[in-house]
């Protein structure tokens, strides 16, 4: 890990989020300038009212006491009436200006916030593409989906509204304090008595809710993971009539989340009245102290009105801050979890001296390979074998013998602890990952199809694969016969996981996908398992075309499918115990012979 990256991890999540805002500092400065103007306008509005009262209305009361008639007063006060109109229009103008500037600021921040979240979300998803398969085995998918969707949206809300409102609130608070002190220090200090109380209440509330929000976000992620997992496995749930148990489990989890939400709501319910009570208290102080000062002639009625408006301006942002603490705390929790994901180091990366390989000849060699998924619980123990270019090699053995692990290691989904794996004489760790996996076509027993259409599932966003290539590949592997009968043909809509297709149809689409990418090496993991006889004949024919001229690694549970392999390697408890052709292994009378005999007797029965 580079020093800069290590240093970055020590920063707080909020400071790291600011890195994403740095490229848009100009937009934020513009929004900041608008905030200053808005604050000035909001502070100026009470002064307009105060001036109108002191210079026009209050003076009118003094003059009226001298015995002037209404008509005489109107003539005498013509200039004051004109000034009242001007001040009224000026006040109305400030209101319009505040509306326009608020809209402009909101537009700037909404656009900027979307750009920031766009970059953040792309970074998260790109980083997830680099993480090794084991990471996804250890972390529920629903939890990871929450990082990319819900958590990013919460952070977006903080960028687009909360940060700016907080800045504006602090400027308003500072401006109000300065303006109040400039009018009358004594009255201001009396009113400021309430500040320590609301400060302590705010500090206690923030400290109490921070832990709640962390737990709440964690529970939401767990619940999302639970829902995603059980919706995906709903067929199993219903097959074993486990609906009630799953429902009870879900209710228990939602009850936990409800309890945490209630704690947060109760904390907010206790805190939210505090700013309001302090506001009323400050107004009471203004009436009591300010009233006496106005009677004594120390301050004017206009000053009283200005103070009343400034008190409201002072507590309004505090109330808004109290309401925004929910978003702040939630965004902090989300940022922590987002950067936890971004700080997860990819275990499989390109070496600094990795080489590009456009095509493989197909020679694969394992030399004294030891591998364990965890610690020293060895899955492969001193495994050595060689697959020559164009050769068809099958691996057989009981469950847990290490067959699938060998596939994963060839594609470098994991790195070995001891020994070496080479392709065409080059260590797989020295081959660029994109070249390694692009040249290996891997077809699994459980075929995954994505939402989209048939063409998309064959092309997989590879722009160099044309529609003509797709059709040619489908025809070669016998998939065209059923695809062309679909509504829309190659544009037929595919639902999630291809649930509307049979297992055989999904497998044929996967063969077309593999052929369209033109791999140098094929890896087949029991491609004909659970397939009906008619479809199996189509698949066997397609396999023959796919394997022609390519190195092929086969993992087989049904030994009848590998009898024509050039070499069969028998695995047992992580070691190679036998090796040879089908006939040679039968003649040895070892493990392979026993496996074959068991399957033959089972099939015969």
Short description, anyone?
With 605 residues, the chain is of the alpha/beta class. Helix content is 65%, strand content 10%.
Give an overview of the whole structure.
This protein is an alpha/beta fold and 605 residues long. The protein has three domains: 11-209 and 272-343, Up-down Bundle (ABC transporter transmembrane region fold), CATH 1.20.1560; 348-439 and 521-530 and 551-605, P-loop containing nucleotide triphosphate hydrolases (Rossmann fold, 3-Layer(aba) Sandwich), CATH 3.40.50.300; 445-518, 3-Layer(aba) Sandwich (Rossmann fold). 65% of the residues lie in helices and 10% in strands. It contains 23 helices and twelve strands. Helix 2 (13-21) packs across helix 14 (301-343), helix 3 (25-64) packs antiparallel against helix 14 (301-343) and helix 13 (273-295) runs antiparallel to helix 14. It is elongated. The mean pLDDT is 83.
Compile the SSE list and pairings.
Blueprint: H1 3-9, H2 13-21, H3 25-64, H4 70-76, H5 78-130, H6 133-138, H7 141-148, H8 150-183, H9 185-191, H10 195-232, H11 234-239, H12 243-271, H13 273-295, H14 301-343, E1 364-372, E2 378-387, E3 392-397, H15 403-410, E4 418-423, E5 426-427, H16 433-438, E6 440-443, E7 452-453, H17 454-459, H18 467-476, H19 480-483, E8 493-494, H20 503-516, E9 521-525, H21 533-547, E10 551-555, E11 567-572, E12 575-580, H22 582-588, H23 591-604
Helix pairs in contact: 2-14, 3-5, 3-8, 3-14, 5-8, 7-10, 8-9, 8-14, 10-12, 10-14, 13-14, 18-20, 20-21
């Amino acid at each position: 890990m580079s020093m800069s990256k290590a240093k970055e991890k020590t920063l707080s999540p909020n400071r790291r989020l600011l890195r994403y805002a740095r490229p848009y500092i100009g937009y934020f400065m513009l929004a900041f300038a608008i905030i200053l103007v808005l604050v000035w306008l909001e502070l100026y509005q009470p002064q307009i009212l105060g001036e109108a009262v002191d210079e026009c209305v209050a003076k009118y009361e003094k003059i009226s006491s001298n015995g002037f008639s209404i008509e005489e007063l109107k003539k005498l006060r013509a200039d004051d009436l004109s000034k009242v109109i001007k001040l009224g229009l000026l006040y109305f103008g400030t209101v319009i200006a505040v509306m326009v500037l608020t809209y402009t600021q909101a537009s700037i921040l909404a656009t900027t916030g979307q750009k920031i979240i766009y970059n953040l979300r792309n970074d998260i998803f790109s980083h997830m593409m680099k993480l090794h398969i084991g990471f996804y085995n250890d972390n529920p998918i629903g939890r990871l989906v929450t990082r990319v969707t819900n958590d990013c949206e919460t952070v977006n809300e903080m960028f687009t509204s909360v940060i700016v409102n907080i800045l504006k609130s602090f400027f308003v608070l500072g401006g109000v304090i300065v303006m109040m002190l400039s009018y009358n220090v004594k009255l201001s200090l009396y009113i400021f008595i309430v500040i320590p109380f609301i400060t302590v209440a705010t500090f206690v509330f923030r400290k109490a809710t921070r832990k709640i929000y962390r737990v709440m976000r964690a529970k939401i992620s767990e619940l999302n993971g639970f829902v995603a997992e059980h919706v995906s496995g709903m067929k199993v749930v219903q097959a074993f009539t486990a609906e009630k148990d799953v429902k009870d489990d879900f209710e228990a989890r939602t009850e936990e989340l409800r309890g945490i939400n209630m704690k947060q709501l109760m904390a907010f319910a206790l805190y939210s009245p505090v700013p309001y009570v302090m506001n009323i208290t400050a107004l009471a102080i203004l009436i009591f102290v300010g009233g006496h000062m106005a009677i004594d002639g120390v301050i004017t009625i206009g000053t009283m009105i200005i103070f009343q408006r400034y008190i409201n301006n002072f507590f309004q942002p505090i109330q808004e801050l109290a309401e925004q603490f929910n978003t702040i705390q939630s965004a902090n929790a989300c940022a922590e979890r987002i950067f936890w994901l971004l700080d997860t180091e990819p275990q499989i990366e390109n070496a600094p001296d990795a080489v590009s390989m456009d095509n493989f000849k197909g020679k694969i060699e394992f030399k004294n390979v030891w591998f364990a998924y965890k610690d020293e619980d060895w899955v492969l123990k001193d495994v050595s074998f060689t697959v020559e270019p164009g050769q068809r090699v099958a691996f057989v053995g009981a469950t847990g013998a290490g067959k699938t692990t060998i596939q994963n290691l060839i594609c470098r989904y994991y790195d070995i602890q001891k020994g070496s794996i080479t392709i065409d004489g080059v260590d797989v760790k020295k081959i660029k990952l994109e070249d390694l996996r692009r040249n290996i076509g891997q077809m699994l027993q459980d075929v995954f199809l994505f939402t989209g259409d048939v063409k998309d599932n064959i092309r997989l966003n590879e722009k160099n694969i044309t529609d003509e290539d797709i059709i040619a590949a489908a025809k070669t592997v016998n998939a065209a016969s059923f695809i062309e009968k679909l509504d829309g043909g190659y544009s037929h809509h595919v639902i999630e996981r291809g649930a509307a297709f049979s297992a055989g149809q999904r497998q044929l689409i996967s063969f077309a996908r593999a052929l369209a990418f033109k791999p140098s090496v094929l890896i087949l993991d029991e491609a004909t398992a659970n397939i009906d006889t008619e479809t199996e004949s189509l698949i066997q024919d397609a396999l023959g075309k796919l394997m022609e001229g390519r190195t092929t690694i086969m993992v087989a549970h049904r030994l009848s499918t590998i009898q024509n392999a050039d070499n069969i390697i028998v695995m047992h408890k992580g070691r190679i115990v036998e090796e040879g052709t089908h006939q040679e292994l039968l003649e040895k009378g070892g493990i392979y012979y026993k496996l074959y005999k068991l399957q033959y007797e089972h099939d015969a029965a």
